[in-house]
Amino acid sequence: MIKDDIKRLVGAREARVGVIGLGYVGLPLAAEFARRGFAAVGFEVDANKADAINRGESYIADVSSSQVKELVGAGRLAATTDFSSLKECDAIIICVPTPLRKTKEPDISYILAAAEEIKKNLRRGQLVILESTTYPGTTDEVLLPMFEETGLKLDEDFLLAFSPERVDPGNPQFQTHNIPKVVGGCTEDSTEVAALLYSQIVGNVHAVSSARVAEAAKLLENTFRAVNIGMANEMARLCYHLGIDTWEVIRAAATKPFGFMPFYPGPGIGGHCIPLDPHYLLWKARQHGFDSRFIGLAEEVNSRMPEHVVTLVADGLNDARKSMNGSRVLLLGVAYKKDINDVRESPALSIIDRLRAKGADVRYHDPFIAEVRFDEAHTEGGGAPLQSVALTDDELKSADCVVIVTDHTQIDYAKICQLSKLVVDTRNALGGDLRRTSCARIIRL
Ligand SMILES: NC(=O)c1ccc[n+]([C@@H]2O[C@H](COP(=O)([O-])OP(=O)(O)OC[C@H]3O[C@@H](n4cnc5c(N)ncnc54)[C@H](O)[C@@H]3O)[C@@H](O)[C@H]2O)c1
Fold it and tell me: Of 424 and 376, which is predicted with more confidence?
């Protein structure tokens, strides 16, 4: 049975693991397999990334270049743009992007492109796992028929499973090895072997009865986050109108040891996951004549936060008898969350665009992001690219308003409080002591 063949290779760490897509998800995963003694090969369409890996250079903050160098040097990690070597892999894991179309419908074209390459190279004895976040049914309704067109049969010739990725870039506490992994196969054998493979690199593997359950579990996790952040954001806007400190309210509510889990407001949601994933669930729901009102509502509330931040800036300037038009506004942080270099879907883009559309002279400082470019959704303010400026004393003193959009750890917040005139703090980055002794006027979300 092929199940036993693959299990033997996995158990002996002799299985060759191919990872398609070496981004935020794929590179840490490939590195972890290599670190545990497997031969890991990354398959990339971006030749620059493949070359960087083969030179021993990492472009993902959670994986160090020294680690990549060591693994490449030991012959356990390599990258290639030649997909014909997929044939040599015993396990193939797909980690390609799953964006949305302009219509907010799922765009699984990257999954399909990766699956086409697998199909061309599929052979008896391979385990294929999809990790990209997607709607329930993708693995067994889309991938399985494609692979069976080769004439090879599930269970008899190959195995197929889904296992969602939960990596949290920039989180030093939870990384690939200690984030529990959910695994659901298209068949029992697929679940069993995929679970065995992940148990070689992850401490806790949770097997479920089908690929669809695993696909739906991932979407529940991220929809849960989007909805609860939406709730916190709505509360923040309400508290602003009522003159109540939102953060103090949340801190107080969080003392309840059961039935409450704190979520925090912010300038809006960003990244490749939380703003997008709920739409995968919504799309599938609509295919079945079902509408998810929570998802639509959360998106509506969350997508209005950049506008609310701009209102806070305008209110602060107004109190200082200044107009937005002509004022200098310095954003601190443009990454969608702290300590990472990812600007995808970042609310900072919308905040900058709105401020520029109102005539503000916008500058930004982000130690992780040297330049931001604006897509067609952000052209009201002209759409010219912006470069990060150094966070000098003069830069702070000459800003009419400083807006903390991302609370990167390495920023000297005491200096911000000392030298700025006005600070809009969307992340509660300025603690109580700093606020009490601050020379700047501080407006918090
Ligand atoms: N970034 C996260 O925090 C995170 C967390 C959990 C799940 N996910 C999910 O994981 C998946 C991957 O996300 P990511 O953040 O790693 O994306 P990414 O953009 O960082 O990386 C994807 C990589 O795939 C490559 N690629 C695209 N098409 C390819 C193809 N046909 N063949 C080979 N390589 C190809 C790209 O060049 C890129 O390097 C998505 O479905 C995402 O929703 C991401």
Answer: 424
User: Could you confirm whether 273 is annotated as catalytic?
Assistant: yes
Is residue 133 lining ligand 1, measured as CB closer than 6 Å? yes
For the whole prediction, is pTM greater than 0.85?
yes
Mean pLDDT (the chain, rounded): 96
Is 280 a member of any domain?
A: no
pLDDT digits (tens, 9 = 90+) for 81-90: 999 999 999 9
CB 275 within 8 A of CB 269: yes
Residue 95's closest CA among 40, 136, 133, 67? Answer: 133
Q: Does ligand 1 have an atom closer than 6 angstroms to the CB of 273?
A: yes
Per the listing, tokens 């030298």 go with 419
| pLDDT in the model for residue 105 | 96
Whether residue 83 has its Cβ less than 6 Å from ligand 1: no
**Ligand 1 atom closest to 169 (CA):** 3
**Count of domains in the chain?**
2
pLDDT over 90 (residue 111): yes
Given the residues 95, 273, 401, 417, select the one marked as catalytic: 273
Q: Kindly state whether residue 236 falls inside one of the protein's structural domains.
A: no
**Ligand 1 pocket: which of 44, 58, 96 to mutate (most atoms within 8 A of CB):** 96
47: containing domain = 2-210
